[in-house]
Amino acid sequence: MEAQKGISGFSDTQEELERVSAAKSELDDVKGRTLDGMSEMKLNSMIAEKKIALAPIIKELRPLRQECQELTQEYEERKAQYDSCAAGLDSNRSKLEQEVKTLREEMAQEENRYHQLNCMKQICEMQMQRALEETRAYVSSDPLERKKAIREVYMKNIAEQDKLREQQKAVRENHGANMKQVKMWRDLEQLMDCKKQCFQRAQNQASRGPAVEEGPEDWLVL
Questions:
Q1: I want to staple 149 with a disulfide (CB 3.0 to 4.6 A). Which of 10, 132, 138, 177 is the partner?
Q2: Which sequence ranges form a coiled-coil region, renumbered to this chain (predicted)?
């Protein structure tokens, strides 16, 4: 059939190509495995070199790691002690601050009380001194000194008040008569004003018009 179509030898060529392709694929697989193996060997070699290089550092790091753990544990323990101590100190500080505040308030109250007592003491001393002077003036034989005595001043004031009471009583008793007299004076004042107005009108009429026969004049006799 291949000879009829003019393509004789096509099958053989196809088979040969397939064998070559299979051989190439196998060779590529072998090459890839070889390269992978070489890469793995190189990587393992590099890892081994790094391990050898890091071995001293790791050897030094192990005791440092243990020391770090011990220091961390010690830090946590001391931190717990510090927190407990700080809490206690804060509590004591608050208590002391409250005590100081209370003592300051008490001190301020005592200072005020001291000043009040001191003022009262000075007032009492002044009163005692005045009482002594009053006693000396009262028992003195000098009339001028006796007049300075508070008792004499009080007696004089009492006498003046009694006199004022008597005057007030007299004013009250004469109030009705005085009011009547005041009313009379007011009526008199109104009457005088009325007379004055009548006289002024008469003068105005005389100056504007003919003479008018005047009647007898009214005069107020006091």
A1: 138
A2: 61-120
